Amino acid sequence: AALTVRFLTRRFIGEYGDMEFIYSHNLTVDGREILFHIWDVPNSQQAEEGSSEEKRIQWADSFVLVYSICDRASFNILPLKIQFIKATKEGQSQEKVPIVIVGNKRDLHHQRVVSSEEGRLLALSLDCGFYEVSAAE
Questions:
Q1: Residue 102's pLDDT is what?
Q2: Which of 17, 59, 69 is nearest to 39 (CA)?
Q3: 110-121: b or e for each residue (b if 16 or more CB lie within 10 Å)?
């Protein structure tokens, strides 16, 4: 949620509830107007794998999966999430689904438990993009 709000408003808010939201946002990219629809799902709600999770996957054209570099569990669930997304999305077509893995909280390097190299290697092994960011900065 912090990254979504940062993207939409350029402001940082540190505390969020456990709510699911869909946001719409216009942005000009390379001279073209792009309309983003962002379905922001808290980690606690991502844990369900069933019709609700499949509905979200079918709805989306691309995926940004965010983990905290200070939370090993948030990183460890990524491979299963990505495999589930690919099986659901790519099973219907031959097109590769765009997925980006984002390690958040880069500013909290003193609390880091997941190295940048681990994130890069996971993204490489799963054919995903990779970035490390700080929503706070």
A1: 95
A2: 59
A3: eeeebeeeebee
Percentage of the residues of the chain whose pLDDT score is greater than 70: 81
User: The domain spanning residue 47 has which CATH number?
Assistant: 3.40.50.300
Rg (CA), the chain: 15
Asked if residue 137 is part of any domain, the answer here is no
Using the structure block, give the residue that is written with the tokens 């990779």: 130
Is residue 48's pLDDT more than 60? no
Which residue type occupies 97?
A: V
CA distance 126 to 81: 11
The domain in which residue 11 lies consists of: 1-132
Exposure string of 75-106, with b = 16+ CB inside 10 Å and e = fewer, is beebeebbeebbebbeeeeeeebebebbbbbb
89 Cβ partners below 8 Å, 6+ apart?
57, 58, 97
pTM for the full model?
Answer: 0.80
pLDDT tens readout for residues 76-104: 999 999 999 998 887 666 678 899 999 99
Q: How many domains does the structure of the chain reveal? A: 1
Distance CA 34, CA 122 (A): 29
